[in-house]
Amino acid sequence: MQSTSSGARFRAAVAAERPLQVVGAITAYAGLMAKRVGYRALYLSGGGVAANSLGMPDLGISTMEDVLTDARRVVEATGLPLLVDIDTGWGGAFNIARTIRNFERIGVAAVHIEDQVGQKRCGHRPGKE
Predict the structure, then answer these.
(1) Residue 84 lies inside a defined structural domain of this protein
(2) Does an H or E element contain 11, and which?
(3) CATH number for 108
(4) Residue 42 phi, psi dihedral angles, 5° rounding
(5) Are the CB atoms for 84 and 26 separated by under 8 Å?
(6) Among candidate residues 120, 116, 17, the one with its CA nearest the CA of residue 64
(7) What is the SS3 assignment for 28?
(8) Where in the sequence is the domain holding 106, given as residue range(s)?
(9) Number of other CB atoms surrounding residue 6 within 10 Å
(10) By the number of CB atoms within 10 A of the CB, which of 11, 43, 60, 91 ranks highest?
(11) Are 49 and 70 in contact (CB under 8 A)?
């Protein structure tokens, strides 16, 4: 087990490599390949979870548990800091706090959240606010 937190390791990687190249890894195996070729951090996208794990487009269908499952697999397999797309956080402020606790608990280094109002829409598609 590593003695420093994944967040601290992510910040150290950002400080050491400018800009830090973070590669998308939607499976544990993809994460292991990225680690083998020298990436210092990984990214798990909401669209990747929807497409790879659910066979669906990125339309806000993925649940927190879906993303936690894939994130846990990548973290456990690679040990690298993982940045995760948490869509809209799955609810209001209280839900978002719970979301953050759950992702911290499994060793995720950092997250980003949608900056949309209302129901989530894929960031690559038109018609969002």
Answers:
(1) yes
(2) helix 6-16
(3) 3.20.20.60
(4) -130, 165
(5) no
(6) 120
(7) helix
(8) 12-112
(9) 22
(10) 43
(11) yes
